[in-house]
Design a protein that fits this description.
By secondary structure, the protein is of the alpha+beta class. It has 13 helices and 23 strands. The strands form 4 sheets. Strands 12, 13, 14, 15, 16, 17, 18, 19, 20, 21 and 22 form an 11-stranded antiparallel β-sheet that branches. It is globular and about 95 Å long. The N and C termini lie far apart (76 Å).
């Protein structure tokens, strides 16, 4: 900057400075313009002082700093209020769901008592009652039904089925197999359910130590329908699929569903596979959970992710067979598929409940945080990165009502514990047992040596916002797919989804997890120290 230009800038009088300040307040009130103005003043002040510099310029810069701080406080207060409102809405929905369940139980008890007194036909009453309950479920999409074992039953994201389809789905659900989950430890079964975490009696608080308990699935009625999902473009997978479909139909007398692509391949192999069922369009996928008892995946972890993404609500138990290059969720081997499936169909089996994240994008133009785009369910992680931009990602992070940090780097990973061995691990995150409920908060190449990963509790809602002073937008991807642009003012809300993904275990969840990191990552593998070296006496 030339001295003459500096002198002309410094020669502002009180009137000119006040006019400039009023224009800034009236015409350029957003934080971005204030940021650039403040930056320009700081550069000016760093120059060598020139004789005649007016003190009003110093006062003007201090006023700009004060206004910028006030705007930042207002933005943080607004985010805190929105997060608090979202939390209260979530609590209201949970309380409403509990009241609906209690009302239904009371109606059921009244009908049963009336049946005993009046001698009403039992079968007719139960049938009419179940039909009325299912009718209410299809009409009231916001109602959530939770069974005693804690797995959500029949709610689906954006499930807008018509009345004509509801009758068809009702007939399908009558043939769906039922099962029961129990928590056990060291071979001993217990009656304790997942939600009985803490007891309070006579002033003493006792935890249930649920982390030490394994989950067992026992069929209450025989499975009738199986869905097989395969990895595409694999000859070995196609051969195994043909053998498995034929065995399930001829030996186990099960109804078999496959993808339309797989059904075409089977019919090209032999016309005898015309008994294999599939769906015609994507709208039918929404109702798959109503009549599928078991899902079998042939591939790697990517096939398991694809299977989980097909179900926007409750997920049937998944039996994953390992036919990929590297798998942490595929404990079963294809060579013994008959013995494995026979054991699973007979039950009981140990399962792992893998938590999913429910992610919603809130645009800057939205009136409130409930005006969101279609939500995403992720089993591994949601990644917010800088995309093709050469600038650092600038993200403001909030946990419920608390400000966490401002991320400056390549991006951020919000991962489930099942995804702790995926992208989060490569970015420096910790490996976590998949049944530990929590959200992993892992930065990607942060521009700070003190920025270490976090593990947040399962009940929080994480809010990632792109501030208005960010140099570039950010990009969000969900399990490596469905990339979404996050412009300045947009935000991403992430919370734990109520529908976990139950995957069958070969032994139990802990044994399978430890074996997967040993075999897949060669975790802590080294030569044993020689015993013939120096020793302590």
């Amino acid at each position: 900057m030339s001295p003459s230009k500096l002198d002309s800038t410094a020669s502002f009088g009180p009137e000119e400075a006040s006019v400039s300040c009023s224009r800034s307040e009236n015409g350029s009130a957003d934080s971005l313009s204030l940021f650039h103005s403040e930056k320009a003043v700081e550069e000016l002040l760093q120059q060598t002082p020139v004789a005649g510099m007016d003190e009003h310029l110093m006062e003007f810069s201090e006023a700009l700093r004060t206004v910028a701080k006030a705007l930042r406080r207002a933005a943080e207060g607004k985010a805190s209020a929105q997060a608090e409102a979202a939390e209260w809405k979530r609590r209201y929905e949970l309380e409403r769901t509990r009241n609906i369940q209690m009302e239904r139980k009371a109606r059921m008890a009244e009908r049963l008592s009336a049946e005993k007194k009046g001698g009403i036909d039992c079968g007719r009453v139960k049938n009419s009652d179940s039909q009325s309950m299912l009718q209410n479920e299809s009409n009231e999409h916001s109602e959530k039904i939770c069974m005693k074992n804690g797995i959500w039953s029949h709610e689906v994201l954006y499930d807008r089925e018509s009345d004509s389809n509801s009758n068809t789905d009702l007939n399908k659900m009558t043939n769906k197999a039922s099962f029961k989950l129990s928590w056990w430890c060291n071979g001993e079964n217990g009656d304790q359910h997942k939600h009985d975490i803490v007891s309070f009696e006579k002033g003493d608080i006792t935890t249930a130590e649920r982390s030490s308990k394994q989950i067992s699935l026992k069929w209450e009625s025989d499975p009738q329908t199986v869905l097989i999902l395969t990895k595409p473009n694999s000859v070995s997978v196609q051969i195994l699929c043909i053998q498995m479909v034929r065995w399930l139909k001829e030996k186990k007398k099960l109804n078999v569903y496959v993808e339309p692509r797989v059904r075409t391949e089977l019919l090209a192999e032999s016309s005898n596979f015309n008994y294999v069922q599939t769906w015609k369009d994507d709208s039918e996928i929404t109702h798959l959970h109503m009549n599928i008892d078991l899902v079998i995946t042939l591939g790697g972890d990517g096939t398991v992710l694809w299977a989980a993404s097909m179900f926007k609500g409750p997920v049937p138990p998944i039996v994953p067979f390992s036919l990929g290059s590297l798998g942490f969720m595929t404990p079963f081997h294809s060579e013994h598929f008959k013995e494995c499936l026979d054991s699973v169909l007979r039950g009981p089996i140990s399962i792992t409940l893998r938590h999913r994240l429910l992610c919603r994008v809130v645009r800057d133009a939205a009136k409130n945080e409930y005006e969101t785009e279609e939500p995403f369910l992720v089993l591994n992680e949601v990644t917010i990165d800088r995309g093709i931009s050469s600038y650092l990602t600038n993200l403001e992070c909030y946990c419920d009502n608390s400000f966490v940090t401002c991320v400056q780097g390549d991006g951020l990973i919000l991962s489930t514990t099942s995804g702790s061995t995926a992208y989060s691990l490569a970015a420096g995150g910790s490996m976590v047992h998949p049944q530990v409920p929590g959200i992993l908060f892992t930065p990607i190449c942060p521009h700070s040596l003190s920025f270490r990963p976090l593990i947040l509790p399962e009940h929080v809602t994480v809010r990632i916002a792109v501030p208005f002073n960010s140099r570039s937008p950010a990009w969000a991807s969900f399990d490596g797919k469905d990339r979404k642009l996050l412009a300045a003012g947009d935000a991403l809300l992430c919370s734990m989804a109520p529908w976990p993904v139950p995957t069958a275990c070969q032994v139990d969840s802990t044994n399978d997890f430890l074996r997967s990191i040993h075999d897949g990552l060669h975790w802590n593998l080294r030569k044993t120290q020689s015993f013939d070296g120096p020793r302590e006496i």
